[in-house]
């Protein structure tokens, strides 16, 4: 995983998950790439982070948090119209449609409903 100071640690992820929280995967290259000086935001790095979150905290604690309006770099997923690239990559990694829906929106929707 990227060793960026703003990323959650492996110790934080289960604490957040146990509290019912969801972390959005940010598409900023510095948060995703193993080399935090990288300017490339790749689907493969996003999938690697999602798989790690699921392994450490479970499927219920991860969502999409693109930050399209606040990041730069060479973005493979440039806007919301390209999000299917991530979901297709997750399918190829063996994620079920139910799991992909949770990552895509139902995890975040659950938190919104519980909070409002």
Q: Can you describe what's shown?
A:
The model has no long low-confidence stretch (mean pLDDT 90). This protein has helices at residues 12-18, 29-32, 43-57, 84-92, 97-115; strands spanning 23-25, 40-41, 62-64, 74-75. It has one domain (12-115). The chain is mainly alpha-helical and 116 residues long. α3 (43-57) packs across α4 (84-92).
Give the tags:
two-stranded parallel ribbon; mainly alpha; 116 residues; two-stranded parallel sheet; 5 helices
* Main sheet summary: 2 strands, parallel
- Structurally, how many domains make up the residues? 1
What is the helix/strand order?
Answer: HEHEHEEHH
**Per the principal axes of the C-alpha atoms, what is the gross shape?**
globular
Between the first and last Cα atoms, what is the distance in angstroms?
Answer: 33 Å
The overall strand count is 4
Q: Order of strands across the biggest sheet?
A: 1-3
Provide the low-confidence segments as ranges: none
The gyration radius over C-alpha positions equals 13 Å
Q: What structural class should be given to the helix and strand makeup?
A: mainly alpha
Beta-strand share of residues: 5-15%
Helix tally equals: 5
Share of helix among residues?
40-55%
Q: Return the average pLDDT rounded to an integer.
A: 90
